[in-house]
Amino acid sequence: MSLILRIGLAAAMLATPLMTHAAMAEIEVHDPYARASTAMSTSGAAFMMILNRGDQDDRLIAVSTDAAQRSELHTHLEDANGVMKMVHVEEGFDLPEGGEIAMIRGGKHVMLLGLTGALEQGDEITITLTFEKAGDIEVTVPVDLERKPDHGDKMN
Predict the structure, then answer these.
(1) pTM
(2) If you write DSSP's letter for every residue of 85-96 in order, what string do you get?
């Protein structure tokens, strides 16, 4: 391998973490919290407000956590009979430049399937949000089983 190629590879490896860190700084997560429906629940959900302070569009494409066997991006859609159904959104959620994703109860949220332990009041879990451009962002999410459903209304 030539010296020039080795120097170029080394420079690329050093620059990659810096570029990822710079992109991450443009995504902000506010007011995260998680809930389980009962003490014996095998599933739960997490909610938060995600803001894009950057100058380019992005997309939330995946979520992961050790708190559940599987985590998915979900939303609620009305079917032909007028019944609201929760659905997995495999393509993720758009996050336009200067925009936000309101992950709130009754709407977009992180679904936690197969909880690996109880989600008890005051606990914290870690959720990794994966964006197309910004990469992975790790969020500490408090478990708040007393939260009122209008938590995100103050974020505008």
Answers:
(1) 0.78
(2) EEEE-TT-EEE-
